[in-house]
């Protein structure tokens, strides 16, 4: 498999995409630091330290599965479902005053709307929370479809959610460009056959993105504009 840099050298693709699918946490919303703080609090309540490198390992993995990984890693007696319920409560409390949109995302979304390019969301977040977060900023109606972990049998890194999103958009997955920030999410989209853009942020700055065709640091990167003839 080619490295991220080697993939980027072949940019742009021969066939331009006809739709864009966004992950949510770390792509639409700047929530990864909040999730890390919530996970740190969850472990602190049990006298444990939650290392950032483990946060990167579970990033993008659906909640129940991610928390089962936490339980096994740190020797906790609770189930993944029990830990997820507690974690979501901590996260919700923090979210009330700290939810914000990733820099450049709204400009990106507006451009896609102007160009008439269909858009979707594919997130590992539960449906109720995802719609609540998107609804705060009037974003729900700006997407053709919103798929969450409640809409699929297999979560990321399985390709199901990106195959389902492509199907709902009525396109071949190969004609969809996906913006993702997590390794699990990029693997999911890549396996589905989509064109993958890896979006870096402070929590993933040191990671390689082997499943990304292009790696950028922000939504305004000019290499993304090439996809849409800009």
How far the N terminus sits from the C terminus, by CA atoms, comes to: 30 Å
Under CATH, the topology of the largest domain is which? Rossmann fold
Q: Specify the number of helices.
A: 10
**Order of helices and strands, N to C?**
HEHHHHHEHEHEHEEH
Spatially, the strands of the biggest sheet line up as 3-2-1-4-5-6
The figure for the number of domains is: 2
CATH superfamily of the largest domain, called what? HAD superfamily/HAD-like
| Biggest sheet features | 6 strands, parallel
Which CATH class of the largest domain applies here?
Alpha Beta
CATH architecture of the largest domain: 3-Layer(aba) Sandwich
Low-pLDDT runs of 5+ residues are 1-9
Strands, count: 6
Structural class: alpha/beta
Cα-based radius of gyration, to the nearest Å: 17 Å
State the main characteristics.
230 residues, alpha/beta, Rossmann fold, DNA polymerase, domain 1
What does this structure look like?
This protein has two domains: 4-30 and 100-228, HAD superfamily/HAD-like (Rossmann fold); 32-98, DNA polymerase, domain 1. Mean pLDDT is 90; it is low at 1-9. Helices cover 44% and strands 10% of the residues. The longest helix is centred in the middle third of the chain and has 19 residues, at 80-98. It is of the alpha/beta class and 230 residues long. It is globular and about 50 Å long.
What is the topology?
Layout: H1 4-9, E1 19-22, H2 32-44, H3 52-58, H4 63-74, H5 80-98, H6 105-115, E2 119-122, H7 127-136, E3 145-147, H8 160-169, E4 176-180, H9 183-192, E5 195-199, E6 214-216, H10 222-225
């Amino acid at each position: 498999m080619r490295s991220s840099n080697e993939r980027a050298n072949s940019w742009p693709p021969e066939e331009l995409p006809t739709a864009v699918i966004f992950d949510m946490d770390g792509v639409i919303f700047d929530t990864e630091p909040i999730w890390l703080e919530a996970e740190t609090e969850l472990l602190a309540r049990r006298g444990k330290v939650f290392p950032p490198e483990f946060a990167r390992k579970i990033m993008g993995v659906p909640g129940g599965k991610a928390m089962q990984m936490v339980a096994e890693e740190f020797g906790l007696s609770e189930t993944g479902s029990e830990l997820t319920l507690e974690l979501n409560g901590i996260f919700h409390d923090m979210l009330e005053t700290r939810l914000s949109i990733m820099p450049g995302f709204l400009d990106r979304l507006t451009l896609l709307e102007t160009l008439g390019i269909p858009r979707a969301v594919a997130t590992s977040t539960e449906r109720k929370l995802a719609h609540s977060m998107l609804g705060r900023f009037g974003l729900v109606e700006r997407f053709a479809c919103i798929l969450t972990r409640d809409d699929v049998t297999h979560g990321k890194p399985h390709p199901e959610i990106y195959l389902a999103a492509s199907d709902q958009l009525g396109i071949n997955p190969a004609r969809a460009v996906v913006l993702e920030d997590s390794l699990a999410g990029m693997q999911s989209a890549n396996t589905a056959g989509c064109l993958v853009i890896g979006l870096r942020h402070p929590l993933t700055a040191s990671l390689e993105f082997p499943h990304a065709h292009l790696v950028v640091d922000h939504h305004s990167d000019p290499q993304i504009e090439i996809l849409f003839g800009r």
